[in-house]
Write a sequence for this structure.
């Protein structure tokens, strides 16, 4: 049986307002106030970090402030983004039983392949690149990510219609190693836009959206129907903006602590990217974890998983970190898309054994 999805477009809003609306969609869907939904959205010039990223490590904050762009933190994992009116976002919010997919990895593949099929209707060959990108000839035209929150699934992505590559490169701190891995020297080389693919004349955004809806319909077996934004969603979004997501405390709460007194820093790079751990030790032999902060562009579901892992590692002997991390993920009933339990343990152990310590 085909499942109906309401389709809405919230237009251009400040980046923090758009993210607050993300969370509002989740909360109103969990409460049964809205149906399964596809949402389109756009941003004024903005930079966004992933939910678990250290903000000053990912963004050139001085350049961002000088350029007057919005600065926000997503509720999903993944890497830092520059967005403006030249791109648009898309999201699916639905009950886990709607598509019958219980694995985050399987969900990412199915939705990305549906999005790629839709964009390919425009006449370009868009492919899904595991684990969560859309590409044309090896260049990224869109990124995606999502998570489960109870029985509600939230999955989002971007589509690049056009982009100021030089501006993006000036605002984001893109590691040289990440570029070298793909044989590129700048962030602009990593991406491709519909404007470039269509020789300077990309299809109108409405046409691109319609193509994506057709891809979702055909590949996911859903029936998208345009509908209205509800007062409950708008009210929830305003409340979330005012209380948390729109505030600096939320946006800047996770930052690079490598220069903080008494903090050891270590990283581990695996298939899912680089995970960094900031660590304070205690005990007569400095062999037990006092506190740990874990950052990176990984995806886990639900997002609170990392905070729970940090709490679970407090008081654990360094020698027991690998086993404690494995036990945590075994018992936590969470999903991992781009990293494994051992990757998190390795980052913590690298901080404990080889990290640089700033004297207290």
């Amino acid at each position: 049986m085909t499942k109906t999805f309401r389709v809405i477009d919230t237009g251009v809003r400040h980046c923090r307002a758009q993210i607050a609306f993300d969370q509002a969609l989740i909360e109103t869907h969990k409460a049964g106030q809205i149906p399964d939904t596809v949402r389109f959205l756009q941003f004024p010039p903005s930079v966004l970090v992933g939910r678990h990223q250290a903000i000053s490590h990912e963004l050139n904050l001085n350049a961002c402030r000088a350029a007057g762009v919005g600065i926000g933190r997503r509720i999903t994992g993944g890497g830092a983004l520059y967005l403006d009116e030249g791109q648009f976002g898309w999201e699916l919010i639905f009950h886990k039983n709607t598509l019958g997919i219980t694995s985050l990895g399987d969900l990412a593949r199915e939705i990305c392949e549906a999005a790629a099929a839709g964009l390919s209707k425009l006449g370009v060959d868009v492919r899904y690149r595991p684990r969560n990108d859309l590409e044309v000839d090896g260049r990224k035209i869109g990124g995606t990510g999502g998570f489960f929150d109870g029985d509600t699934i939230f999955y989002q992505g971007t589509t690049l219609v056009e982009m100021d590559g030089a501006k993006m490169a000036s605002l984001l701190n893109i590691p040289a190693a990440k570029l070298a891995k793909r044989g590129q020297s700048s962030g602009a080389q990593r991406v491709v836009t519909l404007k470039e693919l269509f020789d300077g004349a990309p299809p109108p955004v409405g046409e691109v959206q319609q193509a994506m809806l057709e891809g979702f319909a055909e590949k996911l077996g859903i029936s998208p129907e345009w509908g209205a934004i509800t007062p409950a969603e708008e009210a929830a979004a305003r409340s979330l903006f005012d209380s948390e997501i729109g505030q600096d405390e939320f946006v800047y709460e996770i930052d690079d602590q490598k220069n903080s007194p008494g903090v050891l820093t270590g990283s581990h790079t695996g298939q899912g990217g680089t995970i960094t751990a900031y660590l304070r030790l205690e005990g007569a032999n400095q062999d037990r974890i006092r506190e740990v902060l874990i950052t990176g562009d990984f995806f886990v579901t639900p997002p609170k998983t990392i905070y729970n892992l940090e709490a679970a590692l407090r008081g654990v002997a360094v020698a027991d970190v690998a086993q404690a991390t494995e036990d945590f993920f075994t018992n936590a009933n969470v999903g991992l898309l781009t990293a494994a339990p051992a990757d998190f343990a390795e980052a913590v152990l690298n901080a404990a054994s080889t990290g640089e310590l700033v004297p207290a």
